[in-house]
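TA notes, week 10

Several of you asked for a full example with nothing omitted. So below is the full record: structure tokens for the whole chain, then the designed sequence directly under it. When grading your own attempts, check the secondary structure regions first.
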């Protein structure tokens, strides 16, 4: 299924910028989930003639080569759909005896398979919990040059990737090993490179994605709010901002390496200024509002993957 077809709850909004009023569409979703848990020692497997009692590895080995399960190495398996598309990866954890994990993108699982996957998780794991959850927002029909100027102003590493034209294609904040890594990328460009069909009326399509691991995955609601409080641009400075401060901030956003040349107090001054800008920023405020509207649906989706267990209290401080 084309990813564009999954954007079925898209929110239509208006963004005012200078003398322009821009149409804006956005939608939040769960983009990737990793569930870890203790593997059940006895799994009841029904055959046409009998009921077998198997452990996890025996169950996987028995089903290898049946068209929907493919071995990967000595302790991992890919789950495939009827089109032989990879929909999930499941493995026995090498260094955690008796535990396993399953990793998948719920957006790539259709409604029929979704129920089967949830039963599969329920049948295999005891005390399942999230070790990773990616929360994403698709931002549609805002000019590339406008979106690409946004930055996360927290004191974390920044890795931009530019195309041949010199335009930003992907930006990472935070390391891959950290509990929170933020990625912003040109989703329309990515889809076109994969030869996916993007409707011609979609002029631009960006995705802001929070990759949350370990404890941050459980605290996903708070982490989205915290990240948006640091999502800033040079577009909506507070009215009393001095011209010299505007110029300084724009220079720092243009060349991230210049932050390293500032004294500690000066860094704090300009980060605080950008966080003030974030509170005035129309796009960031639309992200906050649309997230508030979507949070209950996101929570319900996450809960169902753990068979109704409460992941976190939405709105809890």
């Amino acid at each position: 299924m084309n990813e564009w077809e999954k954007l079925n709850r898209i929110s239509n909004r208006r963004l005012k910028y200078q003398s322009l009023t821009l149409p804006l569409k956005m939608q939040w979703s769960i983009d990737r989930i990793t569930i870890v848990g203790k593997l059940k020692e006895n799994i009841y497997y029904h055959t046409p003639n009998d009921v077998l009692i198997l452990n996890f590895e025996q169950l996987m080995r028995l089903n290898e080569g049946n068209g929907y399960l493919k071995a990967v190495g000595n302790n991992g398996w890919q789950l495939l759909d009827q089109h032989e598309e990879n929909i999930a990866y499941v493995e026995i954890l090498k260094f955690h005896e008796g535990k396993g994990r399953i990793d998948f993108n719920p957006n790539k699982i259709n409604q029929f398979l979704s129920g089967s996957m949830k039963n599969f998780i329920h049948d295999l794991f005891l005390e399942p919990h999230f070790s990773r959850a990616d929360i994403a927002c698709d931002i549609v029909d805002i000019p590339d040059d406008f979106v690409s100027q946004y930055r996360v102003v927290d004191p974390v590493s920044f890795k931009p990737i530019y195309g041949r034209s010199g335009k930003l294609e992907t930006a990472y904040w935070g390391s891959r090993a950290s509990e929170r890594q933020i990625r912003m990328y040109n989703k329309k460009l990515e889809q076109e490179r994969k030869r996916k069909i993007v409707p011609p009326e979609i002029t631009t399509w960006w995705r802001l994605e929070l990759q949350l691991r370990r404890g941050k995955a459980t605290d996903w609601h708070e982490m989205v709010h915290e990240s948006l409080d640091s999502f800033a641009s040079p577009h909506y400075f507070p009215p009393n901002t001095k011209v010299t401060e505007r110029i300084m901030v724009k220079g720092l956003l243009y060349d991230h390496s210049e932050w390293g040349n500032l004294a500690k107090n000066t860094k704090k001054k300009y980060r605080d200024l950008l966080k003030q800008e974030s509170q005035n920023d129309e796009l960031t405020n639309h992200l906050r509002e649309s997230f508030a509207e979507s949070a209950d649906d996101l929570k319900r989706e996450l809960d169902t993957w753990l068979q109704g267990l409460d992941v976190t209290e939405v709105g809890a401080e």
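DSSP finds nine helices and 15 strands in the chain. Use that as a sanity check on your answer.
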